[in-house]
Amino acid sequence: MRLKIKVIPALLILLFSTYCYSQIDPSLLKRVPKDTVKNILNMDALYNRPALKINKTPISIGGYLEMNWQKMTTDGISEGNQFQARRLSIFISSSISRKIKFLSEIEFEDGGKEISIEFASVDVEFDPLINLRAGIILNPIGSFNQNHDGPKWDFTDRPISSTQMLPATFSNAGVGIFGKKYSEKWMFGYEAYLSGNFDNSIIENTENKTFLPAAKENPERFEEINSGEPLFTGKIALRNTKVGELGISYMGGIYNKFEDDGITIDKKRRVSVFALDFNTTLPRIKTFITSEFAWVYVDVPDTYSQQFGKKQKGGFIDIVQPILTKTILGWQKAAINVACRLEYVDWNVGSFKETGGNIGEDLWSIMPAVSFRPTSQTVIRLNYRYLKQRDIFSNPPTITDGFNLGISTYF
Questions:
Q1: Among 105, 107, 68, which residue's Cα sits nearest to residue 85?
Q2: Which of 24, 64, 207, 391 is the 20 to 30 A CA-CA neighbour of 57?
Q3: Quick one: 9 exposed, middle or buried, by C-beta within 10 A (0-12, 13-18, 19+)?
């Protein structure tokens, strides 16, 4: 969610919070651990975070930090060494009563260049299967949009399909219901929301292509819906303790302004997104596999050129293999992992009308990695990326490669 906050008030709030935090007797603070229940779903990620709780108050505070160094080269041209302060996220939550909870996340990106409310909602529980959520919500398309915290991943970069095809951490003002039910080895969960929507920026943007992430740049979506019709997002998830979790999600709605002062100015144009996600841990060798694939359909006006795709597809597969878990330099249960991410995105699926030749605008990437986790809440990771990307005419691809070294930690 990308609700812009004026920088000065936001910084004053952060400084005031820091001052207040510094005045609290440390003996009154206690660490609230992450949920220890193994049978959790991706939809639980918002609450499955470590936090500090002040005794005798309902308030908990936490967050995470991400920063890295990188040196990348594209077709032999490099910008040299770069240090990047990717993001600082602050979590503030409160148990208002036994069945009413509040949770928020404020994110500072690129050293404070961009400040946004990532999430801010009130959850009201009527029954484990029926809960109300209202506020600024994360639309549950795929799995990464909700489960995106940096310390959970062994890669410095977020998946390309989740950030450059789907709008990562996409959030809107909205309301909906969600629930879970479990029985022995099975767990079922669902979410259904009506919220703010996309707008014409998905086909009118500086990328000059169909680009859903462009909608995140419009803060007005938290106050009004361009089309006047809400976006529906729904997801169901099924988990077996031995097999893994499968999620099926859909997000769709009318994105264009088709009516003005009661006068029809265009037909209703729809954007629809389907996504599948799956994660599992292989027994014995404990290999963790997580994947997400999505398909995007946009009703692009016929007056637009063919560089604006009506169909897109892409996804990623992460494979993480623990190779050593032991006490290292005084850290108990420290872990060293090797990992690899495979990615593919096609922003314009189809053929040219004139020639029948394939429309390009696609990429694939492979990213091997090594990570060290001194604790479960901190990760130091070294990645190497090799990426090939073609333009719309399928000319010989540009090749990007290089190293990233980063750290991410909850606090």
A1: 68
A2: 64
A3: exposed
| DSSP helix, strand, coil percent of the chain (3-state; round to 5) | 10, 55, 35
Tokens of 174: 């909205």
Task: Determine contact, residues 59/92, Cβ cutoff 8 Å.
Answer: yes
* 398 sits in which H/E element: strand 398-410
Beta strand ranges found along 225-360 (DSSP E): 231-240, 244-254, 259-260, 263-264, 270-281, 288-298, 311-328, 331-346
User: 135 near 122, Cβ under 8 Å?
Assistant: yes
DSSP 71-140: EEEETTEE---EEEEEEEEEEEEEEEETTEEEEEEEEEEGGGTEEEEEEEEEEEEEETTEEEEEEEEE--
Write the pLDDT tens digit of every residue in 202-239. 999 999 999 999 999 988 889 999 999 999 999 999 99
Q: What are the structural domains, with CATH classification, of the chain?
A: 3-410 (2.40.160.10)
Q: For residues 244 and 240, what is the distance between their CA atoms, to the nearest angstrom? A: 5
Task: Return all residues near 55 (Cβ < 8 A) that are at least 6 apart.
Answer: 28, 29, 30
CB 263 within 8 A of CB 271: no
- Which residues contact residue 301 at a Cβ distance below 8 angstroms, ignoring those fewer than 6 apart? 203, 266, 269
